[in-house]
Protein backbone atom coordinates (compact mmCIF):
# COMPACT_ATOMS: atom_id res chain seq x y z
CA UNK A 1 0.00 0.00 0.00
CA UNK A 2 2.92 2.34 0.75
CA UNK A 3 4.27 1.76 -2.76
CA UNK A 4 0.99 2.77 -4.43
CA UNK A 5 0.82 5.98 -2.39
CA UNK A 6 4.41 6.79 -3.31
CA UNK A 7 3.66 6.19 -6.99
CA UNK A 8 0.59 8.41 -6.77
CA UNK A 9 2.57 11.25 -5.16
CA UNK A 10 5.35 11.02 -7.78
CA UNK A 11 2.83 10.94 -10.64
CA UNK A 12 0.98 14.01 -9.34
CA UNK A 13 4.20 15.93 -8.90
CA UNK A 14 5.11 15.25 -12.57
CA UNK A 15 1.72 16.45 -13.71
CA UNK A 16 1.99 19.55 -11.60
CA UNK A 17 5.42 20.26 -13.10
CA UNK A 18 4.08 20.03 -16.67
CA UNK A 19 1.34 22.54 -16.09
CA UNK A 20 3.48 25.02 -14.17
CA UNK A 21 5.17 26.51 -17.21
CA UNK A 22 2.84 28.67 -19.30
CA UNK A 23 5.50 30.10 -21.64
CA UNK A 24 4.46 29.38 -25.25
CA UNK A 25 6.24 32.34 -26.80
CA UNK A 26 8.40 30.25 -29.14
CA UNK A 27 5.34 28.40 -30.45
CA UNK A 28 3.44 31.66 -30.96
CA UNK A 29 6.43 33.19 -32.82
CA UNK A 30 6.62 30.20 -35.17
CA UNK A 31 2.87 30.31 -35.89
CA UNK A 32 3.04 34.06 -36.57
CA UNK A 33 5.91 33.42 -38.99
CA UNK A 34 3.93 30.73 -40.84
CA UNK A 35 0.84 32.98 -41.07
CA UNK A 36 2.95 35.87 -42.40
CA UNK A 37 4.17 33.89 -45.42
CA UNK A 38 2.42 34.78 -48.69
CA UNK A 39 -0.15 32.27 -49.89
CA UNK A 40 0.65 30.26 -53.05
CA UNK A 41 4.40 30.18 -52.47
CA UNK A 42 4.53 26.43 -53.06
CA UNK A 43 6.21 25.65 -56.36
CA UNK A 44 4.08 23.73 -58.87
CA UNK A 45 5.00 20.14 -59.72
CA UNK A 46 7.34 19.75 -62.70
CA UNK A 47 5.85 18.68 -66.02
CA UNK A 48 6.75 15.08 -66.87
CA UNK A 49 7.34 14.01 -70.45
CA UNK A 50 5.14 11.07 -71.51
CA UNK A 51 6.89 7.74 -72.09
CA UNK A 52 7.51 6.89 -75.75
CA UNK A 53 7.52 3.14 -76.39
CA UNK A 54 10.23 1.48 -78.45
CA UNK A 55 9.44 -1.17 -81.04
CA UNK A 56 12.23 -3.65 -81.75
CA UNK A 57 12.39 -4.15 -85.50
CA UNK A 58 15.49 -6.34 -85.82
CA UNK A 59 13.91 -9.61 -84.68
CA UNK A 60 13.96 -11.08 -88.18
CA UNK A 61 17.63 -10.26 -88.79
CA UNK A 62 20.64 -12.47 -88.10
CA UNK A 63 21.49 -12.93 -84.45
CA UNK A 64 24.49 -10.80 -83.44
CA UNK A 65 25.86 -13.80 -81.52
CA UNK A 66 26.26 -15.94 -84.65
CA UNK A 67 29.15 -15.32 -87.03
CA UNK A 68 28.17 -13.71 -90.33
CA UNK A 69 27.89 -15.99 -93.34
CA UNK A 70 30.60 -15.22 -95.87
CA UNK A 71 29.30 -15.57 -99.41
CA UNK A 72 31.67 -15.76 -102.33
CA UNK A 73 29.61 -14.34 -105.20
CA UNK A 74 31.62 -16.14 -107.90
CA UNK A 75 31.68 -19.58 -106.25
CA UNK A 76 28.21 -19.36 -104.73
CA UNK A 77 25.96 -22.33 -105.30
CA UNK A 78 22.88 -21.85 -107.37
CA UNK A 79 19.63 -23.62 -106.69
CA UNK A 80 18.48 -26.42 -108.92
CA UNK A 81 15.03 -26.64 -110.49
CA UNK A 82 14.43 -30.18 -109.19
CA UNK A 83 15.14 -29.18 -105.57
CA UNK A 84 12.15 -27.60 -103.86
CA UNK A 85 10.18 -28.22 -100.67
CA UNK A 86 6.87 -30.08 -100.76
CA UNK A 87 4.45 -27.30 -99.86
CA UNK A 88 1.40 -29.62 -100.02
CA UNK A 89 2.68 -31.78 -97.14
CA UNK A 90 1.17 -31.26 -93.68
CA UNK A 91 3.75 -29.58 -91.42
CA UNK A 92 4.87 -31.41 -88.31
CA UNK A 93 4.99 -29.76 -84.87
CA UNK A 94 8.79 -29.51 -84.66
CA UNK A 95 8.94 -27.58 -87.95
CA UNK A 96 7.63 -24.51 -86.17
CA UNK A 97 10.93 -24.01 -84.30
CA UNK A 98 14.45 -23.04 -85.33
CA UNK A 99 16.77 -26.05 -85.63
CA UNK A 100 19.39 -24.32 -83.44
CA UNK A 101 17.05 -24.66 -80.47
CA UNK A 102 17.21 -28.47 -80.59
CA UNK A 103 19.88 -30.70 -79.11
CA UNK A 104 20.10 -34.46 -79.25
CA UNK A 105 19.92 -35.97 -75.76
CA UNK A 106 19.63 -39.69 -76.44
CA UNK A 107 18.27 -42.59 -78.49
CA UNK A 108 15.63 -45.29 -78.10
CA UNK A 109 15.56 -48.57 -79.99
CA UNK A 110 12.85 -51.16 -80.44
CA UNK A 111 12.87 -54.29 -82.61
CA UNK A 112 12.01 -52.32 -85.77
CA UNK A 113 13.77 -48.92 -85.70
CA UNK A 114 15.95 -46.41 -83.87
CA UNK A 115 14.45 -43.21 -82.46
CA UNK A 116 16.32 -40.08 -81.39
CA UNK A 117 15.39 -37.89 -78.43
CA UNK A 118 15.72 -34.16 -79.03
CA UNK A 119 15.36 -31.50 -76.37
CA UNK A 120 13.75 -28.23 -77.45
CA UNK A 121 10.37 -26.65 -78.19
CA UNK A 122 9.35 -26.93 -74.55
CA UNK A 123 10.27 -30.56 -73.89
CA UNK A 124 11.93 -33.76 -75.06
CA UNK A 125 10.56 -35.19 -78.32
CA UNK A 126 11.01 -38.57 -80.02
CA UNK A 127 11.85 -38.39 -83.74
CA UNK A 128 12.58 -41.04 -86.38
CA UNK A 129 14.04 -41.17 -89.86
CA UNK A 130 11.70 -39.36 -92.24
CA UNK A 131 10.41 -36.84 -89.69
CA UNK A 132 10.90 -33.13 -90.26
CA UNK A 133 12.75 -30.78 -87.92
CA UNK A 134 13.28 -27.00 -88.04
CA UNK A 135 11.85 -24.18 -90.13
CA UNK A 136 13.89 -24.91 -93.26
CA UNK A 137 12.11 -28.13 -94.30
CA UNK A 138 14.77 -30.23 -92.54
CA UNK A 139 14.17 -33.95 -93.15
CA UNK A 140 15.88 -36.46 -90.85
CA UNK A 141 17.96 -38.79 -93.04
CA UNK A 142 20.06 -40.81 -90.58
CA UNK A 143 19.88 -41.42 -86.84
CA UNK A 144 23.03 -42.73 -85.23
CA UNK A 145 23.84 -43.33 -81.57
CA UNK A 146 25.85 -40.10 -81.53
CA UNK A 147 24.20 -37.79 -84.10
CA UNK A 148 21.20 -36.98 -86.27
CA UNK A 149 21.80 -36.09 -89.93
CA UNK A 150 19.26 -33.63 -91.35
CA UNK A 151 18.95 -32.30 -94.90
CA UNK A 152 17.46 -28.82 -95.03
CA UNK A 153 16.05 -27.13 -98.12
CA UNK A 154 16.85 -23.42 -98.03
CA UNK A 155 16.24 -20.63 -100.56
CA UNK A 156 19.29 -19.58 -102.56
CA UNK A 157 18.24 -15.91 -102.70
CA UNK A 158 17.50 -15.95 -106.43
CA UNK A 159 14.24 -17.86 -106.47
CA UNK A 160 15.76 -21.35 -106.33
CA UNK A 161 16.39 -23.85 -103.54
CA UNK A 162 19.54 -25.49 -102.13
CA UNK A 163 20.02 -28.59 -100.02
CA UNK A 164 22.07 -27.97 -96.89
CA UNK A 165 23.23 -30.89 -94.73
CA UNK A 166 23.06 -30.40 -90.98
CA UNK A 167 23.92 -32.57 -87.96
CA UNK A 168 22.76 -32.55 -84.37
CA UNK A 169 25.38 -34.16 -82.15
CA UNK A 170 24.60 -35.97 -78.93
CA UNK A 171 24.91 -33.64 -75.96
CA UNK A 172 27.01 -35.34 -73.35
CA UNK A 173 25.86 -34.96 -69.77
CA UNK A 174 27.97 -32.45 -67.86
UniProtKB/TrEMBL annotation:
<protein>
    <submittedName>
        <fullName>Type IV pilus assembly protein PilP</fullName>
    </submittedName>
</protein>
<keyword id="KW-0732">Signal</keyword>
<dbReference type="InterPro" id="IPR007446">
    <property type="entry name" value="PilP"/>
</dbReference>
<feature type="signal peptide">
    <location>
        <begin position="1"/>
        <end position="22"/>
    </location>
</feature>
<dbReference type="Pfam" id="PF04351">
    <property type="entry name" value="PilP"/>
</dbReference>
Amino acid sequence: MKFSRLALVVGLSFLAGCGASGDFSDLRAYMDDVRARPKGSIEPLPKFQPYESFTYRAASLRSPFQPPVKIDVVARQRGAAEIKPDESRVKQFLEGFNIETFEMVGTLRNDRELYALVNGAGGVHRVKVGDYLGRNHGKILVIDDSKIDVMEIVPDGEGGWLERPRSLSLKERS
